[in-house]
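User: Please run a holo structure prediction.
Assistant: Happy to. Please share the sequence and the ligand.
User: Here you go; the ligand is fe (ii) ion.
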Amino acid sequence: MMSGRVLKAFNEQIKEELESAYLYLSMVSYFHSVGFDGMASWMRVQTEEEVGHAMKLFDFISERGGKVELLPISTERHKRWSSPLEVFQAAYAHEQFITGKINELVKIARDENDNAAEIFLQWFVTEQVEEEANTSRVAQALERIGDSGHGLFMMDQKLGERASASGSAEGE
Ligand SMILES: [Fe+2]
Ligand SMILES: [Fe+2]
């Protein structure tokens, strides 16, 4: 059984992950609207990953005999995106924010002597390293590309190659 404090923090993290999915979905929609279908496809895989993260937490709470509380999802971070660079910079900033949330969760699990929760969260700690690296690498590349139409075209092609987690060994 989880303590009330750990349970509350886990429920809030489910909301954060679903909010991430919703944010990334807004980016998918932007990319399609400006004809970057490869970037849209990359971000769609990311959206699915975020739903996967939420479900991992959902299942853990259930296994521990806790009750999942679904909280309202905010669209506060959604914007009228104006360029792929702006989108990937926002995605990177968002993942840094999520890393902070995961670190807070680990701290709460430790404070409450919840070893199972702490060990479970290690997967998320590692995952955040990957999430930050993925988004910052694309943002960096887009910064170098600047306004080059050819560069953006190549980048769109390249990002379109990202396979969904269910169909590859890339994981979640
Ligand atoms: Fe996530
Ligand atoms: Fe990932």
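Residues 56 and 77 are 24 Å apart (CA to CA).
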